[in-house]
């Protein structure tokens, strides 16, 4: 479908700058191409028809250009927008001209979804946590610039390119579903009463399933689901069925009956260090406008690495590690099938943020 929408042949030249080399793949609403400029700089070009019902590239360019101004370490997790323009192709069947938009971005490496699949469905503890810390830092940078991602999932995270010596750098990509949550004066936008579902059902937040307005909390909730999946290999609703069935499984965490709530938490955190419980508690208790405590979440993850002597580097894809064994986690109160919640689930969030078990 994407190739029928915008089909560019090798050698096609756009904006008198970019020459198409080959097709890399297809996104939701358009094709992605490898291109190069006159200085032999290779880049990725995304395309979409001008008349598409769901334009994504203008938002993506706006987000990337805003993120390019980040001067601290969080800015390294985003590729650069190199160009934004339009072009036209001729339909060979009808002879009619079809206009399209394009965005040119710096290249990134392989997707986390491909890498975790090669690793046997889950990463080693050190790699899972290391990747998640970098993703969280990327989200902090994006949120602090006033944007929500609204589609956090493994395919939207990649490593860097080996040619750039970036095998240990995680990129956050695909900002077509992003939304500005801050007004020009920095104030938080008021929530709409009802919104369309955004994101991917498997990783979407509870509020997304309820068609409520997205906030920073929802990006972080999706991030937490990614963390759990990378660590243990599966989410409890992975085979629940359609979007509505998945949403019902997640909603059990908010059930009126404490027993149902605790069971839902235990199922989600099975096989995880108990400290994951304190992180989930922090996320679930966030209000709509509240800033997540990114720094404390990172501190907890660093504590888990140190306490369990999990080795973050080298990452699994650097050495070709595969994991099929049952992992042993040393943290006191680790989630167990049929067992209690451990110290982390019931640990209250203090004014200082999220804390590991002492």
Automatic annotation (TrEMBL):
Taxonomic superkingdom: Eukaryota
Keyword Nucleotide-binding set for record: yes
GO molecular function, one term: protein kinase activity
Pfam families per UniProt: Pkinase
Secretion signal span: none
Protein kinase domain ranges (all copies): 18-310
Feature: compositional bias, Gly residues: 336-345
Residues covered by region (Disordered): 326-358
Record keywords, A-Z: ATP-binding, Nucleotide-binding
PANTHER family per the UniProt record, alphabetical: CASEIN KINASE-RELATED
Name of protein: Protein kinase domain-containing protein
Organism: Globodera rostochiensis
Lineage: Eukaryota, Metazoa, Ecdysozoa, Nematoda, Chromadorea
């Amino acid at each position: 479908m994407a190739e029928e929408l915008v089909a560019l042949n090798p050698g096609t030249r756009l904006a008198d700058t970019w020459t198409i080399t080959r097709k890399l793949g297809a996104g939701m609403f358009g094709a992605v191409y490898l291109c190069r400029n006159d200085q032999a700089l290779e880049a990725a070009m995304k395309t979409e028809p001008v008349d598409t019902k769901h334009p994504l590239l203008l938002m993506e360019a706006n987000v990337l250009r805003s993120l390019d101004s980040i001067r601290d370490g969080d800015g390294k997790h985003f590729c650069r927008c190199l160009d934004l323009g339009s072009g036209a192709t001729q339909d060979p069947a009808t002879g009619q001209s079809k206009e399209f938009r394009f965005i040119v971005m710096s290249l990134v490496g392989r997707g986390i979804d491909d890498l975790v699949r090669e690793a046997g469905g889950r990463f080693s503890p050190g790699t899972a946590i290391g990747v998640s810390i970098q993703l969280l830092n990327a989200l902090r940078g994006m949120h602090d610039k006033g944007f929500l991602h609204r589609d956090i999932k493994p395919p939207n995270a990649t490593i860097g390119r080996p040619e750039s010596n970036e095998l240990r750098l995680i990129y956050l990509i695909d900002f077509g579903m992003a939304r500005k949550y801050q007004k020009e004066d920095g104030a938080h936008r008021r929530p709409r009463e009802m919104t369309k579902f955004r994101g991917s059902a498997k990783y979407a937040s509870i509020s997304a399933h309820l068609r409520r307005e997205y906030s920073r909390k929802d990006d972080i909730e999706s991030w937490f689901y990614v963390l759990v999946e990378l660590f243990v290999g599966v989410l409890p609703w992975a085979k629940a069925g359609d979007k509505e069935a998945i949403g019902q499984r997640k909603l059990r965490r908010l059930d009126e009956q404490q027993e149902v709530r605790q069971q839902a938490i235990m199922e989600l955190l099975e096989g995880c260090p108990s400290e994951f419980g304190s992180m989930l508690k922090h996320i679930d208790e966030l209000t709509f406008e509240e800033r997540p405590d990114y720094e404390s979440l990172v501190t907890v993850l660093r504590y888990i690495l140190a306490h369990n002597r999990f080795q973050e580097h080298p990452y699994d894809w650097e050495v070709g590690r595969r994991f099929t064994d049952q992992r042993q986690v040393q943290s006191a109160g680790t989630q167990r099938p049929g067992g209690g919640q451990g110290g982390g689930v019931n640990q209250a969030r203090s004014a200082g943020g999220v804390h590991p078990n002492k």
